[in-house]
Each structure stands twice: as C-alpha cells, then as structure tokens.
Amino acid sequence: MNNQPRGRIRSLSSLKRRKKKKKQITNFSQRPINLSDLLAKVSSRGPVNMAGQNARLNVVPTVTMLGVMKARLVGATRGHALLKKKSDALTVQFRALLKKIVTAKESMGDMMKTSSFALTEVKYVAGENVKHVVLENVKEATLKVRSRQENIAGVKLPKFDHFSEGETKNDLTGLARGGQQVQACRVAYVKAIEVLVELASLQTSFLTLDEAIKTTNRRVNALENVVKPKIENTLSYIKGELDELEREDFFRLKKIQGYKRREVERQAANAKAFAEEMVLEGISMQRGISINAARNLLEGGAEKDADIIF
User: A Pfam family for this UniProt protein (predicted)?
Assistant: First the structure.
C-alpha cells in the first residue's frame, strides 16, 4: 500500500466522493413530493397581504387632513352604495334579457322551420324558377331596421326596430300557379325577420350589459377592498398620531406646571428665609444699639465724675 503512488490514492478518493454525491442527488430527485407538506410550508409563512390591507395614504397627520379623509371616506362609502345598487339593477336587467333571449331563440327555431317548409312548398308548387321572378319584382327592400339607444341605470343599450317602407310588388309572382303559397312564404319570412331583429337587439344589449356589469363590479371591488381600507387605515394613522401629539402636549404641560410650581415654592421659601433674616437682623441691630448706648452712658458718666471738684 505504501508503494502505491499518491496521485492514484487521491483519484480513488475523489471518485468515491463523486459517486456518493451523485447517489444523493439521484435519491433526492426520486423522492416523491407531498402536496400537503408543500401547502403547509406555504401557509406557515403567514397570510398574504391584499392591496388594501395595512396600506395607507402618504399624508401629514393634521386635524385638517383628518377632516379631508373623513369627507373622502363618506364620498367613497356613498359611491360604493350607488355602484352596488347600479350593479344590482344591471344584474336584474341582465337576467331578464337572458330569459328573453332564450324565448326568442326558441321562437326563432320554430319560425325558421315554418319558413323553410313554406319555401319548400313554393318551390314544389310554383317551380324552381319562382325565385327569379321574385328577384325581378323587388328593386328595393321594404323591410328596414333602425337603431336607437335605451338608457338603463346609466348604461346605453342599443336597440333595433324593424319597419316597412314602400309597397310590396307582387305583379307576376305566382301568376300561373302557387300565388297563395308565395304569399304564405312571404308572411313566414317576414315574421322570421322580425324575430331575428329582436334577437339581434337582445344579444347586442346582452353583451353591452355584460361588459357594463363587469366594469361596475370591478369598481365596487376596488372601492370595497382598496380605496375604503386605505382611507380607513389613513384615518386610524392620523388619529393615532394626533392622540400621541395630545399626550405629548399633556405631558409637556404637566412638566411645565411642575416646574412653575417648584419655582413658586422656591421663591416663596426664599422670600420667607429673607424675611426671617431681616427680622433677625433688625433684632440684632436693636440689641447692638442698646448695648452700645449703655456702654456710652457708662463711659460718659466716668468722665463727668472725673471733672467734679470738691
């Protein structure tokens, strides 16, 4: 073993480490993933904050801004209530349109079936060349469609109305045979066109109303989940800051009052001490004057006694 070169020993050890590492990677890749554990790890991170949660407007906490935020909250609440009522009204109209569309589609199927049978009868009775006669007689359409708008809860819905204009020319149609079947076919197709126009109006209004409901619901959700929480958080922030300022002012006033009270007490104590000192000084001065006067009297009497001659 000692005779083996060192490079071979190192290469064998590195090869063993590589095999071990590769085996660990393989075992990790083959390990099954537990979905419940993954969801538990994600949920353990805590709830995800929505757009309006814990968010506020960047404002200065003043009393004026508090009034502005209160006014904005009132406006947002009123707008939310109006948009909610509008959404409810549009939803009711949407459901009514849906019922009308279902009814119109059912009647359209019956009308188109009746019209197809009537056309088949005309072709059977009058022959295949009857369509050329009809096209030669018709120069301009007598059935026309006009559009208008209907306002429902602030949403303009398009409406289509059919009307007849001009006279229907049936000079040579069904002259030889099949005149009655041609007229019945015309009547059937006129009714089918009326149903088709009504269905087109209902479906166009349906799509417009659907888009308006989506837009209104987006606005309602934005006001409810973003705008109002932001304003409410801003109001809470301003109230908290104003309360903190009020507490600071109260503490400052208490400190100033305590300082003034201590200053007044100190001045009163100094005045009292000064008064006592003045009283003591006055008493001491009076005592000093009386002692000096007695001393002067004794000294003056001795001198006068010395001047007496008998």
Answer: ATP-synt_D
Q: What is the CATH number of the domain that holds 195?
A: 1.10.287.3240
In a domain, 7, yes or no: no
CA distances from 217 to 8, 90, 220, 241 (A): 75, 11, 5, 35
Nearest to 202 by CA among 91, 112, 101: 101
Regarding pTM above 0.70, the answer is: no
How far is 95 from 196, CA to CA, in rounded Å? 20
Q: Is residue 283 part of a domain?
A: no
Tokens representing 146 are: 């006009």
Residue pLDDT, tens place only, 54-67 = 688 888 888 898 89
> Do the Cβ atoms of 257 and 81 come closer than 8 Å?
no
- Domain region containing 162: 63-242
Has residue 54 been placed in a domain? no
Q: Which range, of 92-106, 163-177, 210-224, 271-285, averages the lowest pLDDT?
A: 163-177
Residue 74 falls inside a structural domain = yes
**How many domains does the chain contain in total?**
1
